[in-house]
Amino acid sequence: MRKVAVVGVGQTKFGERSDASIKEIAFEAFREAIEDARLTPKEIEASVVCTASHYDKQRSPAGVIAEYLGLNPQPTFTVEAVCASSGVGVRTAWALISSGLHDVVAVVGFQKMTELSASEVQEVMGRSGDVQWESPFGTTMPGYFAMYANAHMNKYGTTEENLAHVAVKNYHYGAKNPKAMFQKEITLEEALTSRPIASPLKRYDCCANSDGAACLILASDSVVRKITDMPIWIAGLGCGSSPMMLTSRSLPLTSFGCAVEAAKQAYKMAKIEPKDVDVAEVHDCFTITEIINYEDLGFAKHGEGGKLASEKQTYIGGKIPVNVDGGLLAKGHPIGATGTSQIRTIVQQLRGEAGQTQVAGAKIGLAHNLGGIGMYCAVTILTV
Amino acid sequence: MRKVAVVGVGQTKFGERSDASIKEIAFEAFREAIEDARLTPKEIEASVVCTASHYDKQRSPAGVIAEYLGLNPQPTFTVEAVCASSGVGVRTAWALISSGLHDVVAVVGFQKMTELSASEVQEVMGRSGDVQWESPFGTTMPGYFAMYANAHMNKYGTTEENLAHVAVKNYHYGAKNPKAMFQKEITLEEALTSRPIASPLKRYDCCANSDGAACLILASDSVVRKITDMPIWIAGLGCGSSPMMLTSRSLPLTSFGCAVEAAKQAYKMAKIEPKDVDVAEVHDCFTITEIINYEDLGFAKHGEGGKLASEKQTYIGGKIPVNVDGGLLAKGHPIGATGTSQIRTIVQQLRGEAGQTQVAGAKIGLAHNLGGIGMYCAVTILTV
Known about the structure:
The structure is a homodimer. Chain A is an alpha/beta fold.
């Protein structure tokens, strides 16, 4: 296995981006990443474009994006695993490099969701559940994750207040992130009294439809020292899947099998344990997801994720700082861009470039990217 | 680079498959492939699902298919490059194995197109062109490729009869393939007088909307001998891209830049020349495409592809037998399944299992899979 490092990162502001097309947001993130790596498009040997389908009329987005980014005639294609598209795309790019096919690969994740109405987005999202047996009966993402929340509350006594603590933390850090969609603090009271979406999930328990792009430049150990003095190495990768249909999953719905599998693989490859992680980005599409992720990743025992949140152990200074860029809840969740954005945050932390949200002395970081109703998961472990 | 071999192949019949869902056709191809490799689903360490989007309501098909095939909790995701999805998917699976992440990976290509009307399919296909500057003005796939045909005729004197010879050959071989959509011979006269689609392309110059799936099982050199005595090795891989917009391409439109790039990479990696290839599958979505492919792959000089066809040098016994399974024209072109189906045909040829269409003594085979309006290409070279 050839070693692979992240040598460049870029991201647009997340939020409503009616000012720019998908090509333009992809270019914005790509330009920032190649400038960060001090490379030109001609030096990018291949691109992996990551996005979820059906939000755009444009099919086969790798084609338009590679053209607009000046990446022809190099290889390009699209990797899709709904919300985990770019986490999985990073693993794919890693394999293209580690195998020896390429030395420098760009991973471009993007999504534009706000041109669709909220109900159109829910319909599209629902169809990432099974269209034969589930989505025709009206299942939506908040509905699916509300079932997980109710199951977790029922089994472990997790409370709405535990959930609200996650939202308050992530909005706290979103307020410090100039690229976040929501840059404002919220109180526990505001979170607990926000309008109901799918009980027990309320407005601040849910991420919002967003637009944005994030890009990473990956390079092999054979060229990395020519590019940067501060490579951030990919030390561990894991990827897992769960049955798409909730009716096929193990009961109770209090853990994501795909995440447990992905974490196991990534920790083994990186030869580390959960306690070794200094800073983590986990997929908080809903507050309950972050709590379950703590447990699936081994940051808390099963059933104790809510307590970890309420005790503020996932703030900077706590046991394991999580989502100190605002997470999906406050930073935004432009689906295909989330995995690459998470890794960008970890890279900035490990470089010591995270400014007022820097976790002092962070040496090992982890990014956890969940897809759909928890049917895909990619876990990436990075080190200095 | 660890060596990777194809150890199992499977394919559904191509054509109209209103009897089966996408999960069911994927399972049909997968079951045949794992039976061919004498493996069980538990031994498949990851799956790469290949398909073009927007033909189904079902989003994120890797999720439903991995579940239906019994492949949880192993990694799975979708690779998309429109018509080249599964050619590119094979390269991706190769990298997952060669890098050392996995030893045994399934590549499942599929598409169901016939539930849409012909005009709906044209609208969907058009959107794999640029939706900002091209598809809103009514461009369709036959229209795009007719421009290539007219340019080739204008520059090189290629004739409608040259094109018709390609159709006659591919229907000749399709008639011998029990899994082909069209199992009937046609005459040169029938091809030349078939109804106009987009001048100069007529009915028999065009492939048809089809349903189907094809699956390959790939394995690393470290496990291959435990699985089979007859591995077919992946000796060369290439992948290239061209600008999506025709207006951004080099004029005249007589060659696909992405294919020239992919072929160059694959020949170099396999350390062979075009003359070393014993049997080839090339992407004949239209007859003109096959003629241009001969030239882009180095089987004929530029401008002499039409002559190669008319002189019957691409029949068995000729200089280089091409599409002896009927090609896309007669076998059918269920978009996401085409790349894996082409490689299945080459594997059968190199194993000596191709029956009445066997190319005697074939040792080196090549598969050429083009995406969209020639904006992606994957070339795979296989050897005994």
